[in-house]
Write a structure and sequence with these properties.
This protein has helices spanning 2-10, 15-26, 53-63, 80-84, 96-105, 119-130, 137-150, 172-188, 210-221, 227-243, 253-266, 271-283, 301-312, 351-359, and strands at 40-42, 67-72, 108-112, 155-162, 192-199, 207-208, 287-290, 295-299, 323-327, 334-335, 340-346, 362-365, 374-378. It has 382 residues and is α/β, with parallel strands linked by helices. It has 2 domains: 2-271, Pyrimidine Nucleoside Phosphorylase, Chain A, domain 2 (3-Layer(aba) Sandwich), CATH 3.40.1030; 284-365, Aldehyde Oxidoreductase, domain 3 (Alpha-Beta Complex), CATH 3.90.1170.30. The longest helix is centred in the middle third of the chain and has 17 residues, at 172-188. 47% of the residues are buried. Keywords: Glycosyltransferase, Transferase. This is Thymidine phosphorylase-like protein.
């Protein structure tokens, strides 16, 4: 693994090399047997805080009757699988027979890379994370594709979160180039793919953290989402609609909630636990960070992510949830001194340190920044 990372840092892997690596990683476990001819869909992401696309897009796809088989790895600070893992009883590592049976009876199954499926990809991903090698595009492409090949996906939409700390390039031009390459290699693997470029430097919605993601879903399902969260949900809907050739009727919130909780029950989770997590999360938001001055607000999401992950890493458990934030002001908005920028939740032991780390994420610029909304790449074209 160390030699592979060293080589990939110094050399541009060819498309065939990336594909060979993806196939090799995908074969390090069992194969999931689905009925022949069944089309399988997913919209994964390249990682980054604030987006809920890996939780919402499967619901939109399932609403159309598409079958969604979502194999993922832990996220930072709140990937889809580690958010679902907060729900009591939710089975994130079913065996392959159970996965096949679930998918025959329902449209959506979400699970994690484990010893029985794409295990070598999970080990390489952990090694890359521990050795600061997540942001090597060729390895990121191979890792993403390995999981799709392992479960036999036919259609993939990739949420490429473009940011200064992203793993598909540090700017839009680099991300477009790597997204185009992802489509090209996917085609070699027999997978139809589209890439959706979203701005990873700008918060997509205000709820950041594992419990906060569950709270955001509860707000949405109860019809209490604010315009910021609603706008992000609409972006996820657009991505899902594009992957299904635009043939997707406007959704209803009740349908979306129904599909979510059907999946929770299917995978042995508890709706009561979901509601309890949301309640405990909002109750934990007792402290506030205020604006230090007047100005146009900028939010450094890498600093936010690092602050949350630093506390998570100091807590026990597979997916600890000791902290999170809820933004009260959007990036690029004008704020006045002492306005609430965010509320924070943190275990008492690390609360002061967490707050101080977060303060560095908020600063001010003299003029607005024009963030991009969404760009879509299909077959190499923007």
């Amino acid at each position: 693994m160390r030699n592979l990372i060293s080589y990939a840092r110094q050399n541009e892997l060819t498309d065939s090399e990336v594909l060979s690596l993806a196939v090799g990683l995908s074969q390090s476990g069992e194969v999931i047997n689905i009925l022949e001819g069944t089309s399988l869909y997913d919209i994964p992401s390249t990682g980054g805080p604030t987006s809920l696309s890996t939780l919402l897009c499967p619901l939109f796809l399932a609403l159309t009757g598409r079958k969604v088989l979502k194999l993922g790895v832990p996220g930072r600070p709140a990937g889809g699988i580690d958010v679902l893992a907060q729900i009591e009883g939710y089975n994130i590592a079913p065996n392959t027979n159970l996965i096949s049976r679930w998918l025959q009876n329902y449209n959506y199954v979400h699970f994690i890379v484990a010893e029985n499926i794409a295990s070598l990809d999970g080990k390489l991903f952990r090694f890359r994370r521990e050795n600061d090698a997540i942001d090597i595009p060729s390895l990121a492409i191979a890792s993403l594709l390995s999981k799709k090949i392992a479960v036999g996906l036919s259609h993939v939409g990739l949420d490429v979160r473009v940011s200064d700390f992203g793993n598909f390039g540090k700017n839009w031009n680099e991300a477009i180039r790597n997204a185009t390459r992802f489509n090209r290699i996917s085609a070699l693997a027999g997978i139809y793919s589209q890439c959706f470029l979203t701005d990873g430097n700008a918060p997509q919605q205000p709820y950041i953290g594992r419990g906060e993601s569950i709270l955001a879903l509860q707000k949405l399902f109860m019809g209490q989402a604010d315009p910021w969260l609603e706008g992000h949900v609409d972006t996820c809907f657009k991505m899902s609609a594009m992957l299904t050739d635009g043939r997707m009727n406007k959704y209803s919130i009740s349908e979306l909630a129904d599909y979510f909780f059907k999946n929770v029950v299917l995978q042995a989770g508890s709706k009561k636990s979901f509601d309890q997590i949301a309640s405990l999360t909002i109750d934990g938001h007792k402290d506030t960070i205020k604006a230090a001055q007047n100005g146009v607000l900028k939010i450094d999401l890498k600093t936010v992510r690092d602050a949350i992950v630093a506390v998570q890493n100091r807590c026990s458990g597979a997916f600890p949830d000791p902290c999170g934030i809820i933004l009260r002001k959007a990036a690029n908005s004008y704020v006045s001194k002492n306005d609430d920028l965010c509320t924070i939740r943190c275990v008492e032991k690390y609360k002061k340190e967490f707050a101080e780390s977060l303060k560095a994420a908020f600063y001010f610029v003299p003029q607005p920044i024009n963030y991009k909304d969404l760009e879509i790449i299909t077959n190499g074209k923007v």
